[in-house]
Design brief:
six-stranded mixed β-sheet; Creatine Amidinohydrolase, Chain A, domain 1; 393 residues; four-stranded mixed β-sheet; single chain; alpha/beta; Creatine Amidinohydrolase
Length: 393
């Protein structure tokens, strides 16, 4: 297969920045400020570990892109070919504050500046103090700019889906090998370490310029009653015959995430296990069939979750159908009753209905879906039916 290069080139960031500048002009902004690591990576290609030392990006409607960062990060940004003008400060809190150095670089004057609402109060206050003539206005413009993926991003998401499918396969293989060898079944934590190692090893073996994101590969692995907590963390619980267990996995290729989740049964399913799993399988299939451009997120959510309600299992619903995926594993838009956002071709969203029966288990199936002109494509492809997700003992 062709080796994947995870690092995107300058032409990509030129197009990203043009898109954002078009949005700034359309909404009457002279500039935009964000300190969110995902926004910084989107606009410049610089991935970093956030800390108390501020890193922020500033993009102007007429051209300039400035990346504020500590001096200790300058060389690291250069090795990543950060697509921005670098403005470094010596240390934090510093004799001269970081945002004073920033203001010296971007200049003063009256400007209407949008800012990401994720920015902390302290950093926003520092920016306002350093640019007293500017009008700072909260805006989700940059978040919305990230909704529709460019072709290069879709290619990275596709590769992340392939790796995620391989992680699912590796998790099932570990359990089957233990059964075939008459060995102890793995614990949730052992299974999690195995699938994480599979994902990272695949990338470092088969890819060039691996981009280390907030989560390179991994996920949640839980069994039995522990899986009734939608985001329960892996424990030392050992898988047992008759258990329902969940592999909730994902990875980021070039910083672009994908998730793929399947629910398995160890041994012949009981009547209840079959009912619960079959219901989620139907709901998830309806989600795959109905997600399309022009559909409101809240309507997609209703169509999917109504399958669970109509099966008499509505009391076990704990969350929405899904969420956007991109540089964040969870990002807008939200496939939920309160989000009227229209789905657009090129968006990627999760389709992950679930039910959670206290004291018994949770059941969830998830695919990352690319919204297309014809409907939606599931990027993750591991089999979903209970027959395919039953592991014989």
């Amino acid at each position: 297969m062709t080796e994947i290069d995870q690092r995107l080139g300058p032409e990509f960031f030129d197009r990203v920045q043009r898109r954002v500048r078009d949005g700034l002009r359309a909404e009457g902004f002279d500039a935009f400020l964000s300190d969110h690591p995902e926004d910084i990576a989107y606009l410049s290609g610089f991935f970093h570990h956030p800390s108390e030392r501020p890193v922020a990006i500033w993009i102007e409607s007429d051209g300039r892109v400035v990346l504020l960062l500590p001096e200790l990060e300058r060389e690291y940004a250069q090795t990543q070919s950060a697509h921005a003008e670098l403005v470094a400060f010596q240390e934090y809190p510093g004799v001269v504050s970081p945002f004073t150095a920033f203001a010296s670089a971007v200049g003063g004057g009256r400007r209407r500046v949008g800012f990401a609402t994720t920015i902390s109060f302290a950093r926003l206050a520092a920016a306002r103090e350093s640019l007293p003539a500017a009008e700072f206005v909260p805006s989700d413009l940059l978040t919305r700019s990230r909704f529709v993926k460019f072709p290069e991003e879709v290619a990275l998401h596709r590769e992340a889906a392939r790796v995620t499918d391989r992680m699912l396969e590796a998790g099932v293989a570990l359990v089957k090998e233990a059964i075939a060898g008459g060995l102890e079944l793995p614990t949730e934590a052992e299974l999690e370490r195995h699938v994480t190692a599979t994902g990272t090893r695949t990338m470092y073996t088969e890819h060039r310029n691996v981009v280390v994101a907030s989560l390179l590969a991994g996920g949640l692995v839980y069994s039995g009653a522990n899986s009734a907590f939608p985001h329960g963390l892996p424990s030392v619980n050992r898988l047992r015959a008759g258990d329902t267990f969940m592999l909730s996995l994902g990875c980021a290729v070039g910083g672009r995430f994908v998730e793929g989740e399947r629910t398995f049964v160890l041994g012949e399913p009981t009547q209840d296990q079959r009912r619960f799993h079959d219901t989620i399988h139907r709901a998830q299939r309806i989600g795959r069939e109905t997600i399309r451009a022009g559909l409101e997120c809240r309507e997609a959510n209703r169509l999917c979750l109504d399958v669970i309600r109509e099966a008499g299992l509505g009391e076990y619903i704990r969350h929405r159908q899904g969420h956007g995926i991109g540089l964040g594993m969870h990002e807008p838009p939200w496939l939920e009753d309160g989000d009227p956002t229209l789905l657009e071709e090129g968006m990627i969203v999760s389709n992950e209905p679930g039910i959670y029966v206290p004291g018994h288990a949770g059941y969830r199936i998830s695919d990352s879906m690319l919204v297309t002109a014809e409907g939606a494509e599931a990027l993750t492809t591991y089999p979903r039916s209970l027959d395919d997700c039953t592991i014989a003992l």
